[in-house]
Predict the 3D structure of the following.
Amino acid sequence: MNDESLLQTKQLLLAGAFSVLVVASVVGAALKLRFARGRSHTVIDNLNSRIKAWWVMVLLLSVSLLAGPTVTVVLFAFMSFVALREYTTLCATPPADHTVLAVMFYAVLPLQYVLILGGWERLFEVFIPVVAFLLLPIVACIGTDRDRFLGRIATLQWGVMVCVYCLSFLPALLALDIAGFEGRNVFLIAWLVIVVQGGDVLQYIWGKLLGKRRIAPVLSPSKTLEGLVGGVATATLLGASLYWVTPFTPLQSGLMSLLVCLVGFGGGLVMSAIKRDRGVKDWGTIIEGHGGMLDRLDSLVFAAPVFYLAVRHWWAR
Amino acid sequence: MPERVDALTTRCIARALGIAIRVATHAVTGVRAIRSAAPMADRPRVYFANHASHGDIALIRATLPKSARPSRPVAGSDYWDGSALRRFLARHVFDVLRIDRTAAWIATVPLNRMIDALDHGDSLILFPEGTRNASGAPLLPFKCGLFYLGQSRPAIELVPVWIDNAGRAMPKGRWFPVPILCTVSFGAPLRAEAGEDKAAFMRRAEAAVLALQPGTGATP
């Protein structure tokens, strides 16, 4: 692939994404005008704030497509930071965890992304599950407060795994060496984000249109069987139709979409369960009227490592 | 001339430190103000808050409306005169009104200095618990300086403030913060009523601060 066709692919992908967003925004505004008549309306307002969040997401995606790997890695490091901060805030860490938190935020998180930027995949694949896993409880022992030790340390380890390790598999896709795909790895990130997040939206839309049978009435009352089936099926078609930015054939691209959407759905359920456990509805307030960073990333953090491993196993050298 | 140069250097360093602290406060704690009352009139007032961390001063300063500045934190001179850095921060960055906590027998002196500052047009930031609370209880019993302040200047608005999570972001004994989201909730102002019983006023003031805790349903 030469530079020109690379640039064309980027332009085509972004033009597609922006057109979809423009259409979505127009439809959202029309619905608001036609049915809500300017008053507040739960479903339509929720839809519109989702579209707003999508604008932010597509802008970030454009930045990483156009600005190169360093900016992409820094961007994801920042998202990890925000997500981990939401997580620790919500998990009611006691003041005694100060030292462990400092190590997590100021050493483990930046180091993981430095390893990714350097392309040291042997290290970044094990750094958090092995090194940080052992280091954090050792650091916690230095403090004087050992009340509820296991519960506290497990909570923090979980946070680093989800918010840093799992999320970092998205920029880690840049380090894969795929024959005939050199210089185009950033499209794997774009493809995964579009398919998984698109899957979320499509499940939401199908659920709102046809949803009857609730899958997890306690954990996540808005998730329905009809939404899941319709959403995953359409997201699989979406993923298959985007095969031209990936190293996959259309069939492989569809199967990969099916895989990441199902794992992403599971991720959404798990993160809802944690929110239930902590007695809140949203992880944070970073996105206006629309919860926190983790509310948007929940499916992606679960799908990313699975996608990375599948691509590495079957496509990478 | 050298003195003027020194004063200028000091001002520059203090300004730079002040900005650095403000930026770091926002970056690390993502601090957000929650206001239940409309922005208040432009006049000196007394903010009284719970106290769990030195970060409290930076958090309140980062969320106060512009009209409330200058606002001077009131704090113990035994701590803030303790080292050259603290002295510099207290004097030039935070403009702390330092009072002597150890000499209980001259209790009227600190009170008079607070009243002077109010009369001069400065707002005050007060931590009526008297010390940083690391007890695990949400609030320590208030000291009564707030009551006497209210009685001697009954026109002054006393604004209750709840600072959430500062004790987790930067607990007592630690000198740097870790990323925990903090909020600062400003409540509706209280006024001291003529002839009000001291104990009743203290209960009212404590309840006003406690009611602002997120999750108690009292915040918007």
About this structure: The first helix of chain B runs from residue 2 to 29. Chain B has a mean pLDDT of 85. DSSP finds eight helices and seven strands in chain B.
